[in-house]
Amino acid sequence: MQISLANLLQRYGFPPSQLHSFISKNQFLLNSNNLNDLDKSLSILLSFKITQKSLVSLINDCPGVLDVQFLKKWEVGVLKFGDLCLSPLVVRNFLELSRRFEIDPDGVFHTMKVLKGLGFSEGTLNRVLEEFPRVILMNEGEVCRKIEFFEGIGISGEGIERIFSFFPGVIGFDVEDRLKPLLDEFCHWGFGEDMIRKEIVREPRVLSMELGEFSRCLELLRSLKCREPIKWKILGEGAFRAGFEVKLRVDCLCKHGLIRREAFKVLWKEPRVMTYRIEDIEKKIEFLVHRMKFNVDCLVEVPEFLGVNFDKHIVPRYNVIGYLRGKGGLGSEVGLKDLIKPSRLRFYNLYVKPYPECEKLYGRFSGGEVKSRHPVGLWKLFKPPSYPESKEDVRNMKAFMETLV
To answer: Which of 230, 208, 317 has the alpha carbon at shortest distance from 276?
Structure first.
């Protein structure tokens, strides 16, 4: 029976590696009467055009959706959504919430009509239901309060739709306990209402900041000790935007294993991190952990790793050390600090110069004589003309020198 069930699930795209764990957690599926119903259920789910990845995720997260009677109701209910052009991911979310909270398709359809009546476009509606499907559990008044809040601070209807589209989770925030205190925090730092309004519409995710988080980010920026060009680059789009960029980088570092205190410490010690895109930072961390086999905690001690160029600084040095380690050319183990902190010339003299075969791996200072950027003999064009000296000129120079003695 277990083999038949496994074959059935595998036929509908369930990964073999997850079958044993899934079946052991859901013994009710082994009921011999359920196999035909299970086949029908999986067939109905596929008819909703849900992707295979989403289907497996749905079954893992909420096995109850395999109830054939439940799905037959939804098979009829989905027809009512025909005019709304909902994405398969939205349908997947509806099925999970409907099963968990016992909401019938008619209740979901009513909520959809309410959201549509509030003026949401089809694209925004899909975005909201994909990213924040729990909106269907909210009543109309809760959603309207968010709209009234944004209207109250002078944001246009187009701006409100942009906010909901780019950051659907804001619909779930409480106005009194979250949104108003956050705006007060922005004002406390001296930002005017026009700027706050402009920045919210420009980047709605600023509303995702926890209370006090924005203040901590700005305090970090104020305490930075770095070269002026770096500070100008960080603050190039204004302090408000820079504060949010700090938050994004802190979140990125925390996502990869650092705690928030450590993440702020890394940014303070190495401000250049804030001049790199999030994608570049993640690329470096992936390389550090998976290729170089260092723990992410090393960044607290060597934050310079995130502040240097990946292709010109990190990769060439790693290649040289890897080559020497393979040949047994290292007297002692080279840690991350020894790899990153030495200057280009010092690293070259220590690890590359004694081994000519490493010069191509390192690139810098290799290839013999450095080529001039200017044509040979160009200096002659800028050589000042010489004039013959007369006897009178010689007498004048001698007389001048005698006055200095």
So the answer is: 230
